[in-house]
Design a protein that fits this description.
- The complex is a heterodimer of chains A (491) and B (295).
- Chain A is mainly alpha-helical and 491 residues long.
- Chain A contains 28 helices and 3 strands.
- A 3-stranded antiparallel β-sheet of chain A has the order 1-3-2.
- In chain A, helix 1 packs across helix 2 and helix 7 runs parallel beside helix 9.
- With 295 residues, chain B is mainly alpha-helical.
- Helices cover 69% and strands 3% of the residues of chain B.
- The longest helix of chain B has 33 residues.
- The chains are: A mainly alpha (491), B mainly alpha (295).
- At the A-B interface, helix 1, helix 3 and helix 5 of A face helix 1, helix 2, helix 3, helix 4 and helix 7 of B.
Chain lengths: 491, 295
């Protein structure tokens, strides 16, 4: 009994198996041929099949050609890599992409070559491919060690104009430290030379690489800055330093709004958010303030990263009780029962029509004089937020409500007549817009608004200027091609 | 030891043939780190401890593939009947890696030539042989393919035409495919018969023409890897500087060279003018002076 392994026999059987496969691949019978070609695909480790596959890359049969490309893509090495890519002329671009994806999958599953020579050889072969394959090529490059990374780096730093958005997304497949370096380079180059990529790059950033976005904050337009702010907020705020402060220092209110709107509380630290609130709760812009108050309210019901809901509630309430009460009424979607307020809540419930009119305490605070100006009443609700007394707030609320119910019945023209002549053009603009909103609905046609104001002695020039100013302040917006709408805080 | 087998298999899997070459070269430096001489014996004795027959067969196959690939002879892997054991012993008994490689390649080429002469052409692809530096085999291979096709001209027997021979020949299978005939026999009154014969004649003609055109092209290939034992790299290393020297002189072939150099010696002024245009003076003069000293 001999328990040795007969190597020669094993080898022979292995080879004859491969030979059978190749002979049946040559068979004149198409069925045998296709079956053999399919089987070849399954032999992932047998580079013995490579020469045969390579010799059939230019065969007339399209199916065989495609299968051979795939077989070769799974097996190729060294000189065959360049040869395969040269033979790409034989297949359509869509098939090329599929072959490349197969190569990428192979490298992901089995690892890329680790010898320097081989890596350089791959890079050299792949860099000939066109821009349409860039994302996949970039994916492949990340398996090719240093030469591959160098190619990616050169691409980003020298030829950022050629980089496609999908390729930016693929930067994420590159290992950590290298990826961050590349992202920083990409940010830098994109700001200088290819602005279109900025949104995609922002999307690809993570907590650690986020700091590179400061460059966008410094040089980008407000839209780009707002995108950065939203990304920062979505990733959560751990400390109120660095890029967060940069965003808070931004001159455009929309950037700050993007930050406050998107904050993911469950990923943020409570202390950082509390500090952040301290900066924005008294912001000069009403909408930023509104969002800050909403955030304070949310802190009472959502747990932070290091969270303890009770502690959060007591601390927020201690510092921002007044703002919380205001926010509770603006944000009916947020559960505010934890505030334990008995006075405010029933008052609001008793007068539900108040909210239907689109009136709220926030609006009183923001720009009460722009709302219905009934000269007889002259409620000065701006003083209300200043006083901590809730009852005075409610008194103001009631007075305003009376004025509203008195004013609704009057016609548009009458209302315009009543407008104080000394009011600024912008004020008149808002007033007229609101009056017209009642008859037209939310979207007021620009032309009718212009007509009304012209009748009131406002020149077209002033009209345009007022519209622009109000738009900038976020009080009105162009809701359609020729329509204007008043920004409703309740939304 | 088993780790060594696994690492080699892994290299093949990742397409790191270059590393296998390095490891083979390493054998001459450190046999313990690269125990190529023991690997097969080890598998023979202890292999069944680590894997079943199927896995072992795959390992042996992968080892064979890897060694052939590292020798730039993958195109002959399936064609020749030499076992990996013989290949390795031939390779490793040589003085150096270069000698061993050259020896193995010579053996392989010899076996391949034998196959070609015996018309066993199933696993020989001309394009791949050329890629591996066996280009000098290609003309004979093509010739043999044609001879093979000529031999297996379908013959009529009774009422049927026997195609078995055609099925065995490389080009014959292509003929059959183009005529869309998959059977081993055809009835004489089959409509495809005339088509088949036409395809057969066309193929013969095509290949004869192709051979003629290829003969001119193959000059370079044969020059790069010759049968006199010169390795591809060596051949390249010698042939590469040559154009740099001989750019000015547009003679065809190496045999002419000494003659031109000889003439140049006599008329240095004419040579000088020519070379000034094409290349820098420095290296050329050195070369020339070296040549004259020898003489």
């Amino acid at each position: 009994m001999n328990d040795q392994v007969d190597i020669a026999k094993l080898e022979k059987s292995h080879i004859s198996g491969m030979r059978r496969l190749i002979v049946s691949l040559d068979s004149p019978d198409p069925k045998t041929m296709y079956a053999a070609a399919g089987k070849m695909m399954a032999h992932e480790n047998s580079i013995a099949l490579l020469p045969k596959a390579m010799s059939l890359l230019d065969t007339d049969d399209a199916t065989i050609r495609r299968l051979m490309f795939r077989t070769a893509a799974q097996l190729m090495y060294g000189k065959y890599v360049g040869a395969l890519i040269e033979a790409f002329d034989n297949i359509s671009p869509a098939e090329r992409e599929q072959v490349l994806q197969l190569v990428e999958e192979r490298l992901r599953n089995r690892g890329g070559p680790s010898s320097r020579y081989e890596q350089e050889n791959w890079v050299q072969a792949l860099q000939r491919l066109g821009r349409e394959h860039q994302p996949t090529v970039l994916g492949i490059m990340s398996f090719l060690g240093r030469p591959g990374l160098k190619w990616v780096k050169d691409l980003v730093s020298e030829r950022i104009q050629e980089v496609t958005p999908a390729a930016i997304h693929r930067l994420n497949t590159i290992p950590n430290s290298q990826r961050r370096r590349l992202l920083r380079l990409a940010v830098e180059r994109a700001v200088q030379r290819n602005r279109e990529l900025i949104p995609y790059i922002i999307d690809a950033l993570d907590e650690k690489s986020l700091k590179y976005a400061t460059m966008i904050l410094r040089e980008g337009a407000w839209r780009e800055r707002a995108m950065v702010a939203a990304k920062v907020a979505r990733l959560g705020i751990r400390s109120c330093r660095g890029i967060v402060l940069d965003i808070l220092a931004d001159p455009d209110w929309r950037v700050k709004q993007a930050l406050l709107e998107n904050i993911d509380i469950s990923k943020s630290k409570f202390s950082a958010l509390l500090q952040l609130l301290g900066y924005v709760i008294a912001d000069s812009h009403a909408r930023v303030r509104g969002h800050a108050e909403r955030l304070a309210l949310l802190l009472g019901i959502q747990t932070c990263l290091d969270g303890d809901l009770e502690r959060q509630r007591t601390r927020v309430e201690k510092r921002y009780r007044k703002q919380l009460l205001r926010a509770a009424q603006h944000n009916p979607d947020v559960d505010s029962s934890w505030l334990g307020v008995q006075v405010v809540v029933p008052e609001v419930e008793l007068e539900p029509e108040e909210q239907e009119e689109g009136l709220s305490l926030g609006d009183l605070g923001a720009g009460a004089e722009e709302r219905r100006p009934s000269p007889g009443e002259e409620p000065r609700p701006e003083s209300a937020p200043a006083s901590p007394d809730v009852s005075s707030l409610l008194a103001a609320l009631k007075r305003t409500k009376q004025s509203v119910s008195a004013g609704t019945q009057e016609s548009v023209l009458k209302a315009v007549e009543r407008v104080d002549e000394s009011a600024a053009v912008t004020d008149r603009f808002i007033e007229t817009l609101k009056e017209l909103s009642e008859s037209f609905g939310k979207d007021v046609p620009m032309e009718s608004l212009r007509k009304e104001l012209r009748a009131d002695g406002v020149t077209d020039e002033d009209f345009e200027r007022a519209l622009e100013a109000l738009e900038r302040d976020g009080l009105v917006y162009r809701s359609g091609k020729d329509t204007v709408s008043y920004v409703d805080m309740e939304l | 030891m088993i780790a060594f087998v696994r690492s080699v298999c892994n290299m093949v899997e990742r397409g790191d043939i270059d590393l296998i070459g390095e490891s083979l070269r390493g054998y001459w430096v450190d046999k313990k780190a690269h125990p190529w001489h023991r690997v097969l014996k080890y598998l023979q004795r202890k292999g069944d401890k680590y894997a079943d027959q199927k896995q072992l067969a795959e390992w042996v196959g992968v080892l064979r593939d890897g060694v052939f690939a590292a020798l730039d002879a993958l195109s002959l892997n399936l064609a020749v009947d030499i076992s990996i054991e013989e290949i390795l012993s031939t390779l490793l008994s040589a003085e150096t890696w270069r000698d061993g490689r050259r020896e193995v390649r010579n053996v392989l080429a010899k076996v391949a030539l034998d196959l070609i002469d015996r018309h066993k052409l199933d696993h020989l692809q001309p394009s791949e042989l050329a890629r591996d530096g066996f280009g000098f085999l290609v003309p004979r291979l093509l010739d043999s393919q044609i001879r093979q096709l000529e031999k297996c001209r379908p013959v009529e027997k009774d009422d049927t035409i026997d195609l078995t021979a055609l099925h065995r020949s490389v080009l014959g299978r292509m003929v059959l495919r183009s005529a869309e005939v998959g059977e081993r026999k055809l009835r004489r009154d089959d409509p495809r018969v005339s088509e088949l014969f036409a395809a057969y004649d066309r193929m013969l003609l095509d290949k004869e023409v192709e051979k003629g055109t290829l003969a001119t092209k193959l000059d370079e290939l044969t020059a790069q890897a010759t049968l006199n034992g010169q390795v591809v790299e060596e051949a390249r290393a010698i042939s590469a500087p040559e154009p740099a020297v001989g750019v000015g002189v547009e003679e065809n072939g190496r045999t002419q060279k000494p003659l031109t150099e000889f003439i140049d010696e006599k008329q240095p002024s004419a040579r000088e003018k020519k070379t000034k245009k094409s290349a820098t003076k420095g290296p050329k003069r050195k070369k020339k002076s070296g040549g004259s000293k020898k003489r």
